[in-house]
Amino acid sequence: MKRFLKGVVEWKNHACMVFTAAVCIYTAIAWLYGERSVGMEILLELLAVSAVSVLLQGIAFSEDWLIRNMAYTKRMLLFVVMFLPVLALAAWAFGWFPADNLMSWGIFLLIFFVIFAAMTAGFEILYRVTGKKYGGLLGQRQKKHGQDEE
Prior knowledge:
By secondary structure, the chain is mainly α. It starts with a helix and ends with a helix. It is elongated.
């Protein structure tokens, strides 16, 4: 039970971060189209999509859940395959843009993949910087302990 509650708290925290990012992205795009406010309806829609997206992230990226021993690239592809239809269904169901307009769907897909690529690049940079930092610290520790043993 304790593990479950810990997972719920972690899911809630991640959902809040995703929701904040979604609101910022939506607000920026809406502002470009001349909107000056975001309604409660769209906020609730973004909250629902954010909650589902974090659940799908957990499925795709967590080693503790359903999928073990899968390469990171395959996990990213799995997430896209799961999340893009959910997001497209939400766009259609909530009427985020005219569903019969192919140009709107093209822009939707372009925005999705640009944001996905930017987030992937950001995480890659973060992992490389963090890896170098901890690699350097590990090297210092090994050097120090190597000298202590002599």
